[in-house]
Specification:
Its EC number is 2.7.7.65. It comes from Marinomonas rhodophyticola. It catalyses: 2 GTP = 3',3'-c-di-GMP + 2 diphosphate. InterPro entries: Diguanylate_Cyclase, GGDEF_dom, Nucleotide_cyclase, Rev_trsase/Diguanyl_cyclase. The protein is an alpha+beta fold and about 170 residues long. It is about 50% helix and about 20% strand. It has 6 helices and 7 strands, in the order H-H-E-H-H-E-E-H-E-E-E-H-E. The protein is globular. The termini are far apart. The model has no long low-confidence stretch (mean pLDDT about 95). The structure holds guanosine-5'-triphosphate. The site of guanosine-5'-triphosphate has 17 residues, from strand 1, helix 3 and helix 4.
């Protein structure tokens, strides 16, 4: 793939899919879910108190946190799951053919893995980070739009933040 083409689909910092590419994948997966009568789920994941990391250690260190988070998430997810960086410190995961219980399990696994391994050692400082996650889910016959699915995951993420962070909420 040419570099211009890569930039159109992938986030330059983490190498994950970018927002546009993620939406496209969600649309395709939603159509497929309708045809094949399967369900799908979306996770929204956001770094907790990330502004504090930037303020205390600088933007470059914040970038290293995002890169480490991307690597850890990729190695925790299943091969058909699609993870994207959709905003500054916000990530989204598309889970094709996944029901609600399984989606919550995947989100809990991600949260626990990051709580356990989300540590960077920089200039003698140990920097730990955690994430909050929101889960939304729909069956082939009750999915309206991708936006609705993502908004529901966002609402659940908001609840996870309000509940104290480093946790998973489902819509
Ligand atoms: N290093 C770095 N920081 C970024 C990037 N994009 C956004 N940010 C920072 O991410 C931070 C987001 O802060 P907030 O939205 O206040 O959220 P938070 O501190 O993570 O708090 P909660 O989400 O409520 O737990 C801001 O400081 C942004 O400057 C980026 O690409 N690199």
């Amino acid at each position: 793939m040419k570099s211009l083409e890569r930039r159109a689909y992938f986030d330059h910092l983490t190498g994950l899919a970018n927002r546009g590419h993620f939406f496209e994948q969600c649309e395709n997966t939603l159509s497929k879910a309708r045809t094949e009568k399967t369900s799908l789920a979306v996770l929204m994941m956001d770094v907790d108190h990330f502004k504090g990391v930037n303020d205390a250690y600088g933007h470059k260190t914040g970038d290293l946190v995002l890169q480490k988070l991307a690597e850890m998430s990729l190695s925790t997810l299943r091969k058909d799951d699609i993870i994207a960086r959709i905003g500054g410190e916000e990530f989204a995961v598309l889970l094709p053919a996944t029901d609600q219980d399984e989606a919550i399990r995947v989100a809990q696994r991600l949260r626990a893995r990051i709580e356990e391994g989300g540590v960077l050692s920089i200039d003698g400082h140990k920097i730990s980070f955690t994430v909050s996650l929101g889960v939304s889910y729909c069956k082939h016959d009750d999915c309206s739009t991708v936006n609705e699915l993502l908004n529901a995951a966002d609402d659940a993420l908001y609840q996870a933040k309000a509940a104290g962070r480093n946790c998973v909420f489902s819509q």
